[in-house]
């Protein structure tokens, strides 16, 4: 495992080496992270911008840069005919990226990307979720579908 960001972030006001992150935002293109920080010592706030690489290790062993658009095109097929618009897909791509980046790793396996898609897709549309899950998780028989449906029902509150 590789740590994406190795840093010692000193407070620019009092040089205190310990700062607290109070807000994290990912830029539109997904390649940089703005963090709002607060110094626990002098209580001043400041913003840092970090550019990080997020790499995806494919099953073949190839490594490529994470691409939100690939996530979107991966789920688009499962969303056919469902009441899901481009904005929904964009939001989903963003949630997946934020989830993966929040782990603080420089690289993730393509399996992890697939897993990270499942939850936001389920929140978006259960039918699209079932379609995607059935392909991604290699559903082989009715029991697999039934199991997934039971899980879905268990989640309904
Ligand atoms: Zn300070």
TrEMBL record:
Segments forming domain ATP-cone: 54-144
Keywords attached to this entry: ATP-binding, DNA-binding, Metal-binding, Nucleotide-binding, Repressor, Transcription, Transcription regulation, Zinc, Zinc-finger
GO molecular function, one term: DNA binding
Domain of life of the native organism: Bacteria
InterPro entries: ATP-cone_dom (IPR005144), NrdR-like_N (IPR055173), RNR_NrdR-like (IPR003796)
General function of this protein: Negatively regulates transcription of bacterial ribonucleotide reductase nrd genes and operons by binding to NrdR-boxes.
Family statement drawn from the similarity comment of this UniProt entry: Belongs to the NrdR family.
Protein name as catalogued: Transcriptional repressor NrdR
Organism listed in the record: Bifidobacterium moukalabense DSM 27321
């Amino acid at each position: 495992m590789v740590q994406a960001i190795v840093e010692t972030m000193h407070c620019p006001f009092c040089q205190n080496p310990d700062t607290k992150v109070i807000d994290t935002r990912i830029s539109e293109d997904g390649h940089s992270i703005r963090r709002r920080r607060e110094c626990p010592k002098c209580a001043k706030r400041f913003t840092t911008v970090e550019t990080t690489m997020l790499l995806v290790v494919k099953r073949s062993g190839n490594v490529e840069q994470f691409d939100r658009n690939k996530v979107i095109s991966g789920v688009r097929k499962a969303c056919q005919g469902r009441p899901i618009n481009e904005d929904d897909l964009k939001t989903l791509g963003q949630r997946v990226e934020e989830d993966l980046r929040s782990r603080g790793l420089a690289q993730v396996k393509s399996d992890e990307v697939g897993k990270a898609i499942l939850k936001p897709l389920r929140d978006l549309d259960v039918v699209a979720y079932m379609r995607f899950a059935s392909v991604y998780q290699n559903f082989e028989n009715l029991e697999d579908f039934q199991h997934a449906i039971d899980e879905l029902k268990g989640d309904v509150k």
